[in-house]
């Protein structure tokens, strides 16, 4: 993941629509979620946000009483919800966005045999051990980190999570953040900014945003869902690839070879990757380094803390144990899917781009961002790769190569889809 700190989504979903989450990606601290909400609204037309006003004359529908009451929870505490409370406070549980359905979606898009044929040199596989043995990075105990089972388990666990951000209008950095476990029917208060309940903020309207991660591979046509999985895996394969032009089997067979930033792992880059501006909310721990790990090379303390909050309901787990991301393939894939599904205003999510929900504005069209498809996902994930074709030495060539390879295995036609970033400027 690049060291640049892109602002995490300021426009999430209020409904059970996707919150749509790549190693060129960095999210800003959680407290940046909702800032510039109105600007985000102009650029991400597929999202809706509900404002809950303190004045009863401004209530929308029956939402006023839903969120104006202060939570009795303290940060880190959980409570079980009744079905009525789930409908009222979390918009219910969509039966299409549950773990079993998520697993079915992956298997329908890309069966295990096809996956393993596409990535024979993935980290920890039999072919990886043959190729890596004797190298300075070789670990004889390395398990199959990018296994199909880990992908399946990650998709299933992500599908069990919903996420809610309640912000104060006029001070959208004043937030409460909640995580909802669908299976346990349990709501956890993940964080609350110090000024959320200040005297002035108590008088402000609330902006409520709800995200359902279970919509991954569950929106758009069947072809769109296959294209989405192919696009995610293609981008991850580029970021983690170990191939070269004359590599056995060809360079595309070597996707998913690495899961750690080499300079970070070897100590060549000695930074601990702790951002002072976010260290109060997401403190870095002594002797812990937050360099790139996992399929998206998750970097920086605030990203480890944020993803820990989403995955576990506890920010401390990955902050205290960042090594988990590189040790547990399921967790690694979860970070990738969450990143893929998360819009970063003014960017849409890569998910929305691939399933046809993103509609470019006139301003974005003027930047060449007008052809929804794989090329635009590259711009969502890494704006530094703007205006690049599939020429030798271009990172876009490898990304697009993986995408063609995977979609070819899936048996879908992408001949009319723009795969490079020529003519595109950053969002």
Structural commentary:
- With 427 residues, the chain is α+β, with helices and mostly antiparallel strands.
- It has helices spanning 37-43, 64-67, 83-90, 99-109, 112-118, 126-132, 148-159, 222-240, 262-266, 301-312, 316-320, 324-327, 329-340, 350-355, 362-366, 374-381, 395-410; strands at 50-52, 78-80, 161-168, 171-181, 186-192, 206-212.
- Strands 1-6-3-4-5-2 form a six-stranded antiparallel beta sheet.
- The longest helix is centred in the middle third of the chain and has 19 residues, at 222-240.
Entry keywords:
427 residues; alpha+beta; 6 strands; 9% strand; globular
Concise overview:
The protein is of the alpha+beta class and 427 residues long. It has helices at residues 37-43, 64-67, 83-90, 99-109, 112-118, 126-132, 148-159, 222-240, 262-266, 301-312, 316-320, 324-327, 329-340, 350-355, 362-366, 374-381, 395-410, and strands at residues 50-52, 78-80, 161-168, 171-181, 186-192, 206-212.
Could you give the count of β-strands? 6
| Low-pLDDT runs | 1-66
Structural class comes to alpha+beta
Largest sheet properties: 6 strands, antiparallel
Helix-strand pattern: HEHEHHHHHEEEEHHHHHHHHHH
> Taking strands numbered 1, 2, ... along the chain, how are they ordered across the largest sheet?
1-6-3-4-5-2
User: Into which percent range does the helicity of residues fall?
Assistant: 25-40%
Shape: globular
Q: What does the average pLDDT come to?
A: 85
Indicate the radius of gyration in whole angstroms. Answer: 21 Å
Spatial gap, N to C terminus: 18 Å
| Beta content | 5-15%
Please report the number of helical segments.
Answer: 17
């Amino acid at each position: 993941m690049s060291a640049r700190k892109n602002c995490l989504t300021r426009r999430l979903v209020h409904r059970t629509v996707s919150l749509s989450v790549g190693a060129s990606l960095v999210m800003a601290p959680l407290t940046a979620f909702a800032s510039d909400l109105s600007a985000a609204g102009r650029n991400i037309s597929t999202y809706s946000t509900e404002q809950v006003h303190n004045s009863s004359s401004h209530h929308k529908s029956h939402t006023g009483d839903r969120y104006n009451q202060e939570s009795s929870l303290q940060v880190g505490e959980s409570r079980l919800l009744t079905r009525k409370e789930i409908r009222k406070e979390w918009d219910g549980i969509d039966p299409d966005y549950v773990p079993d359905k998520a697993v079915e979606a992956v298997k329908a898009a890309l069966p295990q045999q096809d996956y393993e044929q596409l990535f024979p040199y993935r980290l920890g596989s039999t072919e990886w051990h043959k190729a890596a043995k004797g190298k300075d990075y070789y670990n004889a105990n390395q398990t199959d980190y990018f296994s199909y089972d880990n992908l399946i388990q990650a998709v299933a666990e992500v599908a069990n999570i919903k996420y809610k951000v309640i912000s104060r209008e006029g001070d959208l950095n004043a937030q409460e953040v909640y995580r909802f476990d669908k299976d346990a029917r349990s709501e956890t208060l993940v964080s609350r900014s110090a000024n959320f309940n200040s005297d002035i903020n108590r008088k402000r309207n609330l902006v409520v945003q709800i995200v359902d991660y279970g919509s991954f591979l569950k929106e758009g046509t069947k072809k769109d869902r296959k294209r989405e999985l192919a696009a995610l895996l293609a981008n991850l394969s580029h970021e983690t690839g170990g191939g070269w032009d004359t590599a056995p089997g060809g360079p595309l067979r070597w996707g998913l070879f690495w899961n750690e930033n080499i300079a970070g792992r070897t100590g060549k880059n000695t930074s601990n990757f702790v951002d002072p501006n976010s260290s109060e909310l997401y403190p870095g721990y002594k002797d812990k380094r937050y360099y790139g790990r996992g399929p998206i090379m998750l970097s920086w303390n605030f990203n480890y803390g944020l993803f820990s909050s989403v995955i576990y309901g506890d920010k401390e787990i990955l902050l205290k144990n960042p090594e988990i991301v590189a040790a547990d393939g399921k967790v690694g894939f979860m970070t990738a899917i969450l990143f893929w599904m998360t819009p970063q205003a003014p960017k849409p999510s890569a998910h929305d781009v691939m399933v046809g929900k993103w509609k470019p504005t006139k301003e974005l069209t003027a930047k060449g961002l007008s052809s929804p498809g794989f090329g635009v996902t590259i711009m969502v994930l890494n704006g530094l790769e703007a205006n690049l074709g599939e020429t030798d030495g271009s990172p876009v060539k490898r990304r697009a190569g993986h995408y063609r390879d995977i979609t070819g295995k899936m048996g879908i036609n992408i001949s009319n889809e723009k795969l490079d970033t020529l003519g595109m400027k950053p969002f």
